[in-house]
Design goal:
Length: 146
């Protein structure tokens, strides 16, 4: 996966790569937060962080191909600038929301399975989902601005 860089020959940002970025950020943050909120263990948090990045890459690839690649293989590109904020927000949401949801549910189920007494699963997964989705969407929008 290439990081979207504006070079003189390409005048715009590929929305597929913004979806990848948002999904990887959302997966990493939501996985790490759910693991930290449930166990407060550094090794488990690091493993959940890496699992979130890998899950975010696969979910972001699927969502990006579904939303921003046509049947003939052409991908959507928007011009850089203030006009690209709304499409970047859409790309960020398309990558961040499904990834944060799946990763927070998965890590929440795996990390809270054997704890006694158990912290509340729903609130722990919900915190990770909301913060992860917000982080991924914000990363995609900020990448467009910067």
């Amino acid at each position: 996966m290439a990081i979207p860089v504006l070079d003189p020959s390409k005048e715009g940002l590929p929305l597929l790569e913004l979806t990848h970025l948002a999904a990887m950020m959302a997966g990493a943050v939501s996985g790490a937060l759910v693991a930290w909120f449930s166990r407060r263990n550094v090794l488990l948090t690091l493993c959940a962080f890496l699992l979130g990045i890998m899950g975010g890459l696969s979910i972001g690839t699927g969502m990006g191909n579904l939303c921003y690649v046509t049947h003939d293989g052409a991908e959507s590109i928007v011009r850089a600038g203030c006009c690209s904020l709304l499409p970047a927000l859409g790309a960020g949401l398309a990558g961040a929301i499904p990834t944060a949801f799946v990763i927070s549910i998965l890590i929440g189920f795996l990390s809270l399975r054997h704890l006694h007494p158990r912290p509340p699963r729903v609130s722990t997964a919900l915190k990770g989902f909301l913060i992860g989705a917000a982080t991924g969407t914000l990363a995609a929008v900020l990448w467009t601005v910067v």
